[in-house]
Amino acid sequence: MNSLFSIEPASRLLLRNGRPTLIRVIDPSSDLVSRLTECNTDEALLALLAKERAGLQIPAVGVIGPKQATAEQLELARQLGQQFAELGLDVICGGRNGVMEAVCRGVYERGGRSIGLLPGDDWLEANAYVTLPVVTNMGPTRNSLIAQTAFALVAVGGSHGTLTEMAYGLHYDKPVFALHDAPFVDGVQYLDAIEPVLSGVIDTLISR
Fold first, then answer.
1. Are 114 and 134 in contact (CB under 8 A)?
2. What is the CA radius of gyration of the chain?
């Protein structure tokens, strides 16, 4: 009998080797439960998550970066958005321009969902690719909400706003990954390619 994945009845959380993941089943009576617990590898689970996202509660992954971004930073953010969407993960960001728009574009191109936490009170401030614009009327203080909501943060490049989001992420005990000239903050994991970022995010998601 496979024991890699199981469901904790009270919380409806998916467990991996007895440890809680960040995945919760919405309807514990659905046949999705048996399909989840029948997965005997991480790869099988990830493939199922990508197909059955609607039946699960999973926090979003945060992508942060500057409004004035380089072409390379924009392309990295777009590729991240594509990869997260293909994994079935929602993306949360500041919802405006630069890296934020690029990651939302990548999510859109792969049929995923993005959440844009906007600093003002007008949803039309969102970039053209945000799926769910959320007005906060909090100005830059909304950076704290992004860090609190995301289960992990990925910084692409950097600015003063990115620096505060990275610090907030660490303050809230979230893993923070950084690519391409992101500001140095002690405790952040600095990586040189998308693949190890994806591995780190997946490790966090499934408690690997």
1. no
2. 17
Please write the tens of the pLDDT for every residue from 151-167: 999 999 988 888 999 99
Question: What DSSP string describes 150-208?
Answer: -SSEEEES--HHHHHHHHHHHHTT--EEEESSPPP-TT-EE-SSHHHHHHHHHHHHHT-
Domain boundaries, the chain: 5-57, 61-206
Q: What's the Cα-to-Cα distance from 27 to each of 12, 15, 77, rounded to whole Å?
A: 8, 16, 33
Which residue, chain included where needed, has tokens 């893993």?
175
What CATH number should be reported for the domain whose range is 61-206? 3.40.50.450
How many Cβ atoms from other residues are within 10 Å of residue 137's Cβ? 11
β-bridge partners, 150: none
* 117 close to 92: Cβ distance less than 8 angstroms: yes
Specify the pTM: 0.94
Task: In whole angstroms, give the CA distance from residue 14 to residue 186.
Answer: 32
Q: In the predicted model, what is the mean pLDDT of the chain?
A: 95
- In the chain, alpha helices (H): 32-37, 42-51, 71-86, 99-109, 142-149, 160-171, 194-206
CA distance 169 to 33: 32
pLDDT digits (tens, 9 = 90+) for 119-157: 999 999 999 999 999 999 999 889 999 999 999 999 999
